[in-house]
């Protein structure tokens, strides 16, 4: 008995989280999978990410990675809002911020990569430069000079997806800036930060710091601030540092020390807080997955939904035995319902850094209320649950 996707050639762009998850599921169903990643190695930057509810955890269990992820979980950390003197305003408990399973993005990416690399081919330091979709497959040209034909190409390459740009149109048509930027970096933990993330706000600006939960003597910083579209390049680290420094200039509390650490930081995570609005996630033999399709930079449950989407996309292809038209239609129909429940209302910038003193006081008052916290925690669990998720058994053909 041959696997349902035996001989089916798939190119996945992006080796973050959703890409390696999809690669594993496709190979599980027999496909020949190549993952191309522009970076020269797995990325080490990024914040902790969480999984909530039986749908997220069920897919991880089916992949066989749940125990391994539990071994590197952070167990979450509480988020404490403080005033300029460091006095508590409110605290959100670890189960609110960290879900039922929280891991650093770097650890999640590594586990998925290690789990899939034995059955898939990874190309680091390369990227797609041209796509030509045709009835018999997608012709792909790479920056390294190679040209190949694939039965399917999947863009799992994030908010600024190159696959989406090649196959669907320019980023400006699909990505809506939500009025904020986010930055993250590491510095020596000479502030004595513990596992509780302490955040200090001024209207339209927030800076937080907490001990790295897996690297001793290191602290992680997250900053969110209100801003129009940035004119700095996405790969110009010095310009990004200057942009972040100017945005946080004049803040009190520990912010001057955090900015001094930014100047010396080897890595910086920097992006606009934005939401993807794509009317279609599939076209011909090209599909979008994860943040490339339904992403919000921060907030919501994008990582868990991307992992669920990888399971569904591979499963529908296997169920259709490689017939991409019905498989991609079924994938999009199912994931539109699941992803849309949280994606539409996510406004992480407004939550983390309210723009006005009134908005800041209103948020602080809400989260100081235990009943409100309990209702929001219950709501996030229900949004992450899809009782109708199919069990895609490994299909085969005689």
From TrEMBL:
Under Gene3D superfamilies, the record lists: D-Amino Acid Oxidase, subunit A, domain 2, FAD/NAD(P)-binding domain
Q: Which domain of life is it from?
A: Bacteria
The molecular function terms in GO held by this entry are: FAD binding
Per the database record, which ranges form the FAD-binding domain?
A: 9-165
Q: Quote any Pfam family the record assigns.
A: FAD_binding_3
Under the heading PANTHER family, the entry gives: MONOOXYGENASE, OXIDOREDUCTASE-RELATED
The protein in question is named FAD-dependent oxidoreductase
Q: Which species is the source of this protein?
A: Actinocatenispora comari
Q: What is the lineage of its organism?
A: Bacteria, Bacillati, Actinomycetota, Actinomycetes, Micromonosporales
């Amino acid at each position: 008995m041959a696997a349902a996707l035996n001989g089916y050639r798939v190119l996945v762009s992006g080796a973050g989280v959703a890409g390696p998850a999809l690669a594993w599921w496709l190979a599980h169903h027999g496909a020949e999978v190549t993952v191309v990643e522009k970076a020269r190695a797995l990325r080490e930057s990024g914040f902790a990410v969480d999984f909530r509810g039986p749908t997220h955890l069920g897919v991880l269990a089916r992949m066989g990675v749940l125990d391994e992820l539990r071994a590197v979980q952070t167990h979450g950390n509480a988020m404490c809002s403080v005033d300029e003197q460091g006095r508590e305003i409110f605290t959100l408990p670890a189960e609110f911020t960290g879900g039922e399973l929280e891991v650093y993005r770097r650890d999640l990416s590594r586990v998925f990569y290690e789990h899939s690399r034995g059955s898939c081919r990874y190309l680091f330091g390369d990227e797609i430069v041209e796509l030509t979709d045709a009835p018999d497959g997608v012709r792909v040209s790479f920056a390294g000079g190679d040209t190949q034909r694939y039965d399917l190409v999947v863009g799992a390459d994030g908010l600024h997806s190159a696959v989406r740009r090649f196959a669907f149109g320019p980023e400006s048509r699909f990505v809506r800036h939500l009025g904020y930027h986010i930055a993250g970096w590491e510095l020596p933990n000479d502030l004595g930060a513990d596992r509780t993330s302490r955040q200090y706000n001024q209207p339209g600006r927030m800076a937080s710091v907490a001990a790295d939960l897996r690297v001793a003597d290191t602290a992680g910083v997250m900053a969110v601030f209100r801003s129009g579209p940035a004119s700095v390049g996405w790969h110009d680290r010095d310009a990004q540092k200057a942009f972040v420094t100017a945005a946080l200039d004049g803040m009190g509390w520990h912010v001057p020390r955090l900015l001094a650490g930014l100047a010396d930081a080897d890595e910086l995570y920097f992006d606009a807080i934005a939401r993807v609005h794509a009317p279609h996630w599939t076209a011909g033999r090209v599909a979008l997955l994860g943040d490339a399709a339904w992403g919000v930079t921060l907030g919501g449950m994008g990582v868990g939904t991307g992992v669920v989407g990888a399971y569904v996309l591979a499963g529908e292809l296997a169920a259709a035995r490689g017939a991409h038209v019905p498989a991609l239609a079924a994938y999009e129909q199912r994931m539109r319902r699941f992803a849309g429940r949280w994606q539409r209302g996510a406004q992480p910038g407004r939550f983390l850094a309210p723009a006005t003193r009134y908005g800041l006081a209103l948020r602080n008052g809400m989260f100081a209320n235990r009943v409100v916290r309990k209702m929001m925690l219950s709501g996030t669990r229900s949004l992450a649950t899809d009782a109708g998720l199919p069990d895609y058994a490994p299909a085969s053909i005689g």
